[in-house]
């Protein structure tokens, strides 16, 4: 079977889980991909690009199943079109290529970012519909548009796709790191003097990987399943991290309205210096105004999904960052 995004954070965890189940795997990677997460794994490499349909046809040759995990996950991009080319057009390209090759089973990795949030921080489930107009930022909007396209292909072209919606994965092998990983890294370095009143659903990346396999084995075509874990405020997360990092959790809570102008300045500085994604982004601050809590009850009931406590995920993330020298 073919997996996309295997060199990344979630994809590498899914690949390892599939290998442990005895599946023969082929990984689609870009010519410039960082392959550290694939080191010493028994996986066939296929070089290609989601934006190049011809390369996808070649990568899918002889494959009966597809895990499409790849995505451009950034909260700030200097050229937003790149994100839509990968997340929306790239998804359409790989699914149509799978259809041409007669692939029998597809698991598509969406995100809880495509779902609506409920008021007062109540956990939302798979029925919490949202539209692209509801989305804050290019990442959420592109993932929403991509999932709409996937569901259309299932309905119109009868593609055999099961959709999974991971919440906020944390854990080892976050080599970039992701926006969430960067937050954990800053806390582990003792560089987070304050926090905002927000909340997310945190889950171990390896539990998300197990959820992908369960969706492949037991999921219903056309259905979507939230692969979540534990709903936690940012203050609770920072308190959990403190024993692992050796740094005290911050006690100062800053208002969102104060953070927004700082985020604008950080993005302006990134533009001028042509640097990487700033630590504080406008979209990140806007998103933090809502507690993005979710329920994974459907996946537990229908798939047998059983995630562990979030504290283990946070601990494993810090230990991996420390082992790989990120805390220096």
CATH superfamily of the domain at 2-175 and 201-233 and 293-313: NAD(P)-binding Rossmann-like Domain
Give the mean pLDDT.
93
The DSSP helix count reads: 11
CATH architecture of the domain at 2-175 and 201-233 and 293-313: 3-Layer(aba) Sandwich
Q: Assign the CATH topology of the domain at 2-175 and 201-233 and 293-313.
A: Rossmann fold
Largest sheet: 7 strands, parallel
Could you state the order of secondary-structure elements as H and E? EHEEHEHEHEEHEEHEEHEHHHH
CATH class of the domain at 2-175 and 201-233 and 293-313: Alpha Beta
Share of helix, binned: 40-55%
Uncertain runs are: none
Helix/strand class? alpha/beta
Strand order of the largest sheet: 3-2-1-4-5-6-10
Strand-residue proportion: 5-15%
**Terminal CA distance:** 39 Å
Question: Could you walk me through the main structural features you see in this protein, from its secondary elements to its overall organization?
Answer:
This protein is an alpha/beta fold. The protein has a domain at 2-175 and 201-233 and 293-313: Rossmann fold. Helix content is 43%, strand content 14%. It has eleven helices and twelve strands. The chain has helices spanning 9-20, 53-59, 81-100, 138-157, 179-188, 205-218, 234-245, 256-273, 282-287, 297-303, 310-323; strands at 2-4, 26-29, 44-47, 65-68, 105-109, 161-166, 168-170, 194-195, 199-204, 224-227, 230-233, 252-253. The chain has a seven-stranded parallel sheet, with helices on both faces. Strands 7-9-11 form a three-stranded mixed sheet. Strand 5, helix 4 and strand 6 (161-166) form a beta-alpha-beta unit. Helix 2 packs across helix 3. The N and C termini lie far apart (39 Å).
